[in-house]
Amino acid sequence: MKLTDHEQKMLDGTHGQAKQKAMDLLVRYGEALGAERLVDTRNVCGTAGGSTPFLRDFAAKFGGYDAVFSEFNLDSSETVENPRAEVFTCQVIQGLDCDHWQVLGATPQAVAHHKESERHEAELGIQLTNTCAPYLLGNVPVKGEHCAWMESSAVIYCNSVLGARTNTEGRESTGAAMLTGKIPYWGYHIEENRRGTHLVELASDPGDIMDWGLLGYYLGDVVQDEIPVVTGVHAAPTLPKLKHFGAAAASSGGVELYHIVGTTPEASTLDQAFGGRSPRERFVYGPAERRAAYEKLNSTARGADVDYVMLGCPHYTIDQIWEACCLLEGKRIHENTSLWIFTPRAIRELADKNGFTDIIRAAGGWLMSDTCSAVGQHLPKGCKVVATDSAKQAHYLPPIMGVQARFGSTRDCIEAAIRGRWEGALT
What we know:
By secondary structure, the chain is an alpha/beta fold.
């Protein structure tokens, strides 16, 4: 790998042990990928937290959170002092909402360790955004900007909707990037690699968020980790629709980048999206494909009773919280059902000021932040059936938590919370 003079000095240890370890990791990583050089980045979304039981025990045994960062972010068995981040770095979604830990079923010990871990992250200069959707909190890179982001639904949004450039990074590479401002130049950082591979033609415009989730789930299933180009979208989709669409495509497949002709920034025309090439395969998405995706997402569900309604994956926007409140106001959640809505902490504070949190609480629900059911692995006690408007959660919760999942519209989910039963259907 070809290094600049500054990169070589970091690798030689001129700028300290931690940066030397970080550069060593990036060089090994880049060479394994076939990258010829590194590229500058000023925008990192990763994790340096250590609040899981395993990492808590590791910190206690081996010398605190410097040891956790050294081992799990820098791949170093030698503990080195952790310097502050060199570039702007956001913490991705974590495993606990410390304000509602009792509702989640956590312990006081877990809360104490989580707060200690967060203090360490803040000392490193990491922004405690704690969300899978950093673009909701002002981290909106511009077209062509090189980033180093974790979290599949964030990565696909960054690449596709914003036109910025990132691969799906991990804890190690983002930890190294935050200390060096470097990431291997490969994959979706390279213009040539961002061109479409598969064409997906829509028989009709998707409607609500549920429809966009179904389309994304179908699309990821058929293209896997390739780059789909979607045609036939005439009404401009909203941010929440694209958020749910990308998360679904990244869950059923491994999609990190898509193009919607006439909508996304690298697809003004079909020719631009494919870079003048012909698609490898063509698919038509119509009523049969839509129904097949719906049935697949609901394939684990057997009973009609619903124990838990989970909304906010990816984290809810303020307009989605407002929509949920419009459906909830003046109503009461069924005594046998729980409603948890997840959003970034900063948006929850806005919801507090707007009175939305009060509406949700008056109905018997909870507005939570910093985590979700799949990442935190928190469910209401005795939960067997979950209803959600997130294709991602419907995909992951059954295998992770051993529950049944019902997928439908936001209205379907709110009504299930009120009635305690699922009555949603594909129309």
